[in-house]
Amino acid sequence: MATAVIRYTAAALTDRGRKRPTNEDAFGFSVEHGIYVVCDGMGGAAAGEIASSIAVDEILHQFSARRDSGEPLPKVALEAIDGANEAIFTRAQRNQRLNGMGTTLVALVAEERHAWVLNVGDSRAYRLREGRLQQVTLDHSLVEEQVRMGRMSHAEALRSPLRNVITRALGTQSSVTPDCFEMETEPGDVFMLCSDGLTRELTDRTIEALLKPNEALESRCAVLIDAAKKAGGHDNITCILVQAAA
């Protein structure tokens, strides 16, 4: 029996939240090329906004240009991320005002029944399957690494004054190594890529409950953003939802 072809649809939304004067998050995607990206910038002045925008633009451009090169898609994605890292790092070296700027990254590459998630920093990817939400990525943050080593509880991590410290970022060094997760996709799967402005305000249980399957993707994005703002909105909030269907 022939296997059904998987097709993807997507929607995205970003908001500066209730406390920040600007939005340093950036996102972009191409359903045609199967690439989806969320970045959360950091740095003084407008540096974070510049870093996240460079990352999204470079990754989408480089991935789309090399998409049909015949190379494995994860390799194409990693090369695009390397290019974005170099672009941010070089820009910061040339402009003292931008020194130290960087950004987190979470990206999804999807083709047929295969998907790859790549991440740097603490922006996350989740997969919703049959109503159950599962975190795909592992945060590159000081407190989460302490939790994984058993040196800190989840409750302590949430209260820690160091919870904003990330241990890996795009553009702050001359090279960076993303994590890469491979999985098979099933019809009905929904992937969520988001900045920590969402996950700091909402628990996984709450997010799972808000991702109602009968709502349009655009509506679900809006519901998530609104809930995060009502819960405090302390940071910029961005999410992309990507749904697989036969």
Q: Characteristics of this structure?
A:
246 residues, alpha+beta, Phosphatase 2c, domain 1, five-stranded antiparallel sheet
What does this protein structure show overall?
With 246 residues, the chain is of the alpha+beta class. The protein has a single domain, classed as PPM-type phosphatase domain (Phosphatase 2c, domain 1, 4-Layer Sandwich). Helix content is 33%, strand content 28%. Strands 2, 3, 4, 5, 6 and 9 form a six-stranded antiparallel β-sheet that branches. A hairpin with a 4-residue loop joins strand 2 and strand 3. Helix 1 runs antiparallel to helix 2. The radius of gyration is 17 Å and the shape is globular. It starts with 6 loop residues before the first strand and ends with a strand. The mean pLDDT is 93.
CATH class: Alpha Beta
The portion of residues forming beta strands comes to 25-35%
**How large is the radius of gyration?**
17 Å
Helix count equals 7
N-C termini distance: 15 Å
Query: What is the string of SSEs from the N terminus onward?
Result: EEEHHEEEEEHHEEHHHE
CATH topology group: Phosphatase 2c, domain 1
Low-confidence stretches: none
Morphology call: globular
Mean pLDDT: 93
CATH architecture: 4-Layer Sandwich
How many beta-strand segments?
11
Task: Estimate the helix proportion, in percent.
Answer: 25-40%
Global structural class: alpha+beta
Quaternary organisation of the protein chains: single chain
